[in-house]
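Hey,

Quick one before I head out. I ran the complex with MF3 overnight. Inputs first:
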Amino acid sequence: MITIKNEAQIGALKESGAILADIFRVLKDFIKPGVTPAEIDQLVRKILREKGAEPSFLGYSGYPAAVCTAVNEQVIHGIPDSTPLKEGDIIGCDIGVTYKGMISDAARTYPVGRISPEVQKLLDVTKKALMEGIAAIKPGSRVRDISKAVTAVIEPHGYGIVHSFCGHGVGFEVHEEPQIPNNYPSRGKNPRLKPGMVLAIEPMVNLGTAEVEILEDDWTVVTEDGSLSAHFEHTVVVTETGADIVTGSLD
Ligand code: MF3
Ligand code: CO
């Protein structure tokens, strides 16, 4: 079942998303060579406490942190540790915020210091794929119209589009229906989108193969070939005319 959120719930969701947008603004300046993923996690926990919000991922299926970090070839769901970031790394930060009962979910991949043009392009293409996926939400559109728009941006570059993980409904729970694949075509349901649905759209894009594997910690997803991976995610509300982004801007 795909849940529909009412006006009050969408209001609270937007407050939750605004907190998340603030956090990303802070992280943009905080992340530099020498900083550790564990410090990022601690900082995010502190900001959430100050704002009276809660980390949605901490304890979710036993996940042990507030932020899912993903350094370089890590795709998603890495556990923040104390390894300092190095110049030229990239780090994905995926965060869920629970506020007034509503969950927003978003991710950014940040450069650490200076990165190569090749890697910057991977980040830019992944951002564009997310924004085009959101732009595909129009009256009457279906889940796979999002997948089609995301894939159309990425495919010409020959990057690997991760298909083992998807976007998803969100709001009351971290993961709700529907699943939103980033690859197209793909099998499965293709429900029509309706006003009041809340979706987390999240392309995960690899410089090399699309194939991924999970490390022995049972969480960290890495590229099978060790190539770098980028991840951007927004929470959006489907409206009568399109979609409203609740988790700020990617810049
Ligand atoms: N945003 C993440 C996703 O959609 C949620 C992570 S849940 C956690 O996959 F358990 F890993 F924290
Ligand atoms: Co998500």
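The chain has four helices and 15 strands.

Talk tomorrow,
K.
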